[in-house]
Request: fold
Amino acid sequence: MLACAVPSAVWRLMMMAGWLPGTEQLQALHEGEGGYVLGLSIAQVLAAVLVVGLVRPWGERFVGVDINRWLPVVLGTVGGAVMTWLFTISLWAGVLAGQRPDQSTLEGVPLAIMVWAYAPMMLFGPLTLVAVAGYARRRSGSGGPGLEARPRAASHLIDHRG
Reply:
């Protein structure tokens, strides 16, 4: 998931910082939006980290407390659906209709770099939905569609007295 989110976040920050030659016109269009761009980039990467939590053990506990299994399922489903709409459906439908997210300010290598950085975001939403489905299935305990509590390890059955 990080591989989907990080390239566009880094590209966006580098563009706003003026470190990408050929993006001056696009940077001027977003003059005064530095805080928004920084916040958006941070939120994007943090969302990707949370999605990684769906497939890692640390995603089931927070400060020693079990996370209610419905919270990641509901939030992940909503987030995955929104990201699928924004980056997989809406963005690419607009591009196919002749609308460009850069407002036709980029060309050549800068445009190719932007497309390379944003293309992985097309997978972010669908992969989030796959991770949510896997999380729900794993937490169900039966591997089925329900969300019953997942059985915990039976370490309490081991006699540690020697």
